[in-house]
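--- STAGE predict ---
source: upstream dedup step, 1 unique chain passed
mode: sequence only
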Amino acid sequence: MSEIIFDSNTTKKTLQDNSKTDGFLESKGITINKPTAGVYVRCKPGSKREDFVIVEIATITDANTQKDTQYILKGKDDETHKKLLHTFRSVRTPAYLVHFQDSGGNEQIWVCKMPGKGKTPMTTHKTSVTCIDAMCMGWRMVYFENLKTGYVCEKPETQDAFEDHDFSDFTQSQIINMAFGDNIVTDTDHDIVKVFKGQKL
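--- STAGE serialize ---
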């Protein structure tokens, strides 16, 4: 599978879609996780929220395991992209893909969901953006508290308490490709499209 490019054009296209529609690599273990209580996290020094792409994420729940899997919807062309957005309209939302590191040096991606077209931002959306900005300034403990207060961000007493692990030299696109692998949907022939439409594989 060739590398799929994620850049500022991806963000622009995702934001446009939300305002118009109903809607050979080295490897590294990049996981998809949310920051959790008890673990300090940070974004790459010098980064800012605008550096992270916004993509369409479809969250599909397996009926047997009740496990959610997140898929990036990024059609290979405009027509295919519109078809994917339409197919997954009930389970998709725009999301920042926030590349971060925990205090153990493990790199991860936080799929930080934003409100979709016509939706009112909730407390979780607003507080998560504040947390991203804070993570760009240094180590923070970030966790979801509840629906009323959303995400909480706590600053440590000192930034020097943590080992200064190097971030990998991979590009944003490489990191996203490593984290999502086959869960990047570029065509209507993808198995998850067939499953979601109730077609036999």
